[in-house]
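I'd like us to work through together how a protein chain folds, taking it slowly. To get us started, please write out a protein record for me. Go ahead whenever you are ready, and we will take it from there:
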Amino acid sequence: MLLTILADGAEPTALGLNATAWVAVGMLMVFGIMLWAKVPKIIGGMLDKQIAEIKKTLDEAANLRKEAEALKAEYESKTAGAKAEAEALMDNAEKEAATLVKQAEVDTKALVARRKKMAEEKIGAAERSAIAEVRAKAAAAASQAAETLIASRHDAAADKALVDQAIGEIGKTLN
C-alpha cells in the first residue's frame, strides 16, 4: 500500500511525502488551477468593476453635495432677501402708521375747530335772536308806555296842534 504507517511514533507518509508536504502540493495545485483558469484576472476585473462603481457613487455623492450646497446658498439668499423685504415692509408700515396718526390729529383738530365755530355761530345766533326779542319787547313796552303817556297828557287840542305842526313840516319839505 501507498500509505506507510510506522510504529515507532514516526509520521505517516504517502508516496514518500508527509502531511505537510501534501498540503503544500495541494496548495500548489490550487494555485496552478487558479492561474490556468485566469482567476486573478477575473478577481481583478471584479475588483476594478467595484472600484468603478464606488467611484461613480462617490462622484454622484459629490455632485449631490454641490447641488445641495447651491440650493442651500440659494435659500439662504432668498431668506436674507425675504428678511430684508420684511424689514422694509415693517418700516413702511410704521411710517404709514405715523402718517395716519398725524393725519388723524390734524383731522381731529380741524373737526374740533369746525364744531367750535358752529357752536360759536349758534351762540351768536341765539344772542342776536335774544337781543332782537328783547328789543321787540322793549319797543312794544315803550310804545305802550308812550301811548299811555300820550293818552294821559294829550287832549284833542294838543293833538290838533301836533297834527298841524306835522302837516306844516311835510309841506316845507315838499316845497
Notes: The beta strands are 3-4, 13-14. The chain has three helices and two strands. Residues 39-153 form the longest helix (115 residues).
